[in-house]
Known about the structure:
Belongs to the hexokinase family. Residues 226-459, 675-909, 1116-1349 form the Hexokinase C-terminal domain. GO terms for molecular function: ATP binding; D-glucose binding; fructokinase activity; glucokinase activity. Pfam families: Hexokinase_1, Hexokinase_2. It is a peripheral membrane protein. This protein has 1373 residues and is α/β, with parallel strands linked by helices. It has 48 helices and 39 strands. A hairpin with a 3-residue loop joins β28 and β29 (981-990). The longest helix is centred in the C-terminal third of the chain and has 37 residues, at 1255-1291.
Amino acid sequence: MFAVHLLSFYFSKLQEDQIKKVDRFLYAMRLSDEQLMDISARFHAEMEKGLSSESNATAAVKMLPTHVFSTPDGSEEGEFLALDLGGSKFKVLRVKVSDNGKRSVEMESETYPIPDEVMNGRGTDLFVHVAESLKDFIQRKHINQKRKPLGFTFSFPCGQSKVDEGVLLSWSKNYKARGVVGTNVVESLRHAIDSVGEVDVDVLALVNDTVGTMMTCGYDDQHCEVGVIVGTGTNACYMEEMRHIDLVEGDEGRMCINTEWGAFGDDGALDDFITQFDREIDAASTNPGKQLFEKMVSGMYMGEMVRLILLKMAKEGLLFDGKVSDALRTKGKFHTKHITLIEQYKEGLKNTKDILLELGLSPSEDDCVAVQHVCTIVSFRSANLCAAALAAVLNRVRRSRKLKRLRITVGVDGTVYRMHPQYPKRLHKVVRRLVPECHVRFVLSESGSSKGAAMVTAVAQRRAAQRKEIDDTLALLSLSPENLQQVRDQMRVELERGLRKDSHSTACVKMLPSFVYRTPNGTERGKFLALDLGGTNFRVLVVKIRSGIRKSVRMYNKIYSIPLEIMQGTGEEVRSPTLLPSCISDFLDYMGMKNTRLPLGFTFSFPCRQTGIDKGSLVSWTKGFKATDCEGNDVVDMLREAIKRRNEFDLDIVAVVNDTVGTMMTCAYEDPKCEIGLIAGTGSNVCYMEEMRNIETVEGDEGRMCINTEWGGFGENDCMENIRTRFDREVDEGSLNKGKQRFEKMTSGMYLGEIVRQILIDLTSRGLLFRGRITEPLKTRGIFETKFLSQIESDRLALLQVRSILQHLGLDSTCDDSIIVKEVCGVVSRRAAQLCGAGMAAVVDKIRENRGLSHLQITVGVDGTLYKLHPHFSGILQNTVKTLAPECDVEFVLSEDGSGKGAALITAVALQSWFHQTITHFSTYETLLDIMNRFKIELVNGLGRDTNPTATVKMLPTFVRSIPDGSEKGDFIALDLGGSAFRILRVKVSDEKKQTVQMESQVYDTPEDIIHGSGTQLFDHVAECLGDFIEKQNIKDKKLPVGFTFSFPCAQTKLNESYLLNWTKRFKASGVEGMDVVALLNKAIKKRGVPDIMAVVNDTVGTMMTCGFDDQRCEVGIIIGTGTNACYMEEMRHIDLVEGDEGRMCINTEWGAFGDDGMLEDIRTEFDREIDRGSLNPGKQLFEKMVSGMYMGELVRLILVKMAKEGFLFEGRITPELLTKGTFETKHVSAIEKSKDGLTKAKEILARLGVEPSTDDCIAVQHVCNIVSHRSANLIAATLGGILSRIKDNKGNPRLRTTVGIDGSLYKMHPQYSRRLHKTVRRLVPESDVRFLLSESGSSKGAAMVTAVAYRLADQRQGSSVKKVNRKHCGVS
């Protein structure tokens, strides 16, 4: 027993020694894992080079595209022929593939030899030999003459541009047929078949044996996406992502790549791993320097490798006692099959001895052990090298698909892999060690490359048939240029129908007026609330808009979800205090704004028929809403009612807004050219600025208005039936609003996913998708959301990620399925984008034609998830618009929150428009001309005897018949009563050389109790003051003529007789109205021995006379101060109220009452009405209340209060001082409008009113002052223009040269007033040369001037003797 153990130990020791000896000799062939990883990385780099179009030409690993796009999916069936040419024999097969419940493959084959003279002769002879063999096979097997599809396995390197085309790159495997390299072998085979005749086949596919192996295994295992051959030669193929294959057009899907890895190392990449034996084999081969990797691993060279090693070892005395036989010296005597026998587990050493004896050697036991180990090292190196290259392929597949772990099957064929007892195990083990992230299954190809050719043919035939069916289906959704033109033209027709009154009710595109008349201009400012209801969420926002240098929009919001039972419940639930109002209440609490009343914009993204900016009746629900009792009702009223019932807060709902209009306004805030809004999201809609003259459903022809087209309803009248598909009709049938919103159902995000689902169901039911299995998820409506379209169509998304999305939806897909799904998504979204583009082309072309332009530049503001997130939608839409509207340059700009920000901007614009309309809409030239003409009519009415009693402009004769002519002289007293300050003057006029005027005056106060007391008290007070003045002037004995300026509306019957019509300017002395004020004053002054009043004049007349003294062309007088009035020289022939036709007389217009009869109601504002209501004389002096200094400050105050309440100013804060009447004076308006320190003054004045204004507030207040004062100047200019125009007409001159005398604190003190007035007058009466002359001494001097003129005229009428007496009596020299 001991002897047995000793013998066993000795033998083991002997084996160990022999193995170590071989290991030392062949150490270069033993590769570590690190070396294998290095080789794998090098091979991957070679793959990259081969796939790149830039480096392929120089790449050793050619990575040839095979144009095989898919592995079998199990649905293939039919009868096919296959040819397999790749060795000394070739095979012809008939392959029957069936799918009758259980997949099966039946094969019949014949093998035909290829003589050496054919292999190395002419190429034509080779292909004729193949064709004749094929003919023989068909006849033997009695295959019917019906044209059979044929696959051709051609196991040589070919460049393919199609699956049925292959250009031979080089021969291998001892083939040398002439005239074939560089030619299309499929074409050569077809020619040979034709020449042989009686063979009716259709060569559909050319495949490499490696590809055939993958396809054969792929039929049984659909995870098989790699094929490897390790036999006489070696190669690998695998399914590569198309996006990585530069050599072929297209990025979608996969294609099988024939690596031709046998050439790995031909560029020196393996030089450090090539041994002296590899070099010997290469040098002795028929293709030195080529296929180096193949020479290191394949069965053709493995046996020769072992022979060379044994010969070298024997020569060095390491084997066979140094003896070498002739057979061992002879090339090709040691075959790869010998290695397979030697490495058998049990019989290996015995087989080794037998083989060595056959070679003429006398091996010892040691020699047999050593030779066996040499074979092991050589075959193991082959397996290791194949494993390293295969690991690179597997890692590439895993990384391309972005997987952590890859599950894949490798189909393998080849004699070495099949026959060698250890090779598969070694290969599998090393591969799994090198790529632990891959779960790899190896499947031996049972029928080899022959069956594979049939499989490729079957797949090609299946794909072609499926492709036709799919193409036919998707063609239904493809729109031709003619289709798109028809959509554009029909959309234009429907736009026009919606605008016309006679067709609006039946139009499917409703063209709803939005009552938004302009886009933002950048001056909008303030704080606003916004509500956004348009989907499953309800949003409440506060939006702060700033203008000027710090122009910005800031938003704060909170989102509330709307339950389905509310969306589809009753309107009462929507209106109830438990929903919208409770959300608003929560938000106001959250923001600490419960007690703040801000203007609010309500974005209500459903079709509404608006009758005003804040009035909108719901036309119909969309987007899945079906709440009852809402359609036909005013949504603003419903919201107001709900808020009122809650009784917690108050909101000023200024505007109800469509999201599309909001989108346009948001973009227009940044881009003034933006006049179109587009929503391409859950819904689809467009709005645009239409000319008012085209909108027959709204009154007015001037300007523009935004029209909410509601184009989603396009097609409801069947005008699109020619392009609607059965899939569209399926979607419509399953919708909540069947037959409605047809265009929206073809273009919007709510429905595109559902259209895709309908198409997928159709394709699956026909076996074209998902292996014909319609799963429960696929049957579920709404499962395929539109967001998946955007994700699936992303250029950055690999097909594996598409498969991941589909798997997430419960749809188990192949790569082919993923490609088809992606294609379906693309067709559906492309059609949607094209339809939107066609509709948009109709809109922009309409705008261009509206404006009479040959070319239009315009911007479209866009919002919506479909436009924003879909990778191609925007580009297709824009290109469609460009094609269909070539005369329009259309820019598309993305909107930032059109629903929230847009609602606030619309509210701001609405309030600003309301404000400007309220205050400034009459500032246009046309409006001012209209007012001027109205005033001219009032002048005529006032002058007419019959019309004067009802005229508001009373046109009072003053009996002043002449202006000064320069000859006046004397000493006069003038009284001036027109306000709380009463003035008395002494005026000396002399004409020595140059006429001069000297004046002395004193001002006396008129107490409030006298102003509001009795007439007697008032005139006694005047007489008392006059007596005081005469005493102080020491002129009691001179009896000077007295002129009386009485600045209130009076009817004069003589120069010294004047009846007060009514008090103005806060005067209310009783017993005076209707009385002769001259008589009342004379009665009071007689007590003091003062002469009677010679002339009574209005302050306006006094102003004209004062200025007339300096400029004899002055024939108009105006007062613009605390009050306002005008007078002018009228032709006597036009004054019905006074006898006589000769000469002229000054008329006191009393224009302050202009409009008292309602003539100005269209331009009066709510602020004017509020001022009138709070005045002492409501309904009177309405023109004066719009223009004069007494009311201007108060007008500004009322506007500021309103703006603060609306959130435009002071962040909505209102102080008690600001609410107090009279705290904002007209002098403040003048101070604020100063160009340099106006803003500083504004801040100071507002601070005194308890307000802490921002810079923006000060700018806004200054602008308000500007608008109010400018309005005053414009209105005065219009009425003055009426007077000047009348004077010109009276004189009959083509051009009027005249002077206007002016007085009044507003005109004098306001920094901009005079300039604005002059400019507007000259614009309104361009045919007049008007000089404006400021009255230096006002109406007081004027009274003296009237007296002086009256005295001069009296002199001229009396004889010279009477003159002398009068002069002496009056103290006139």
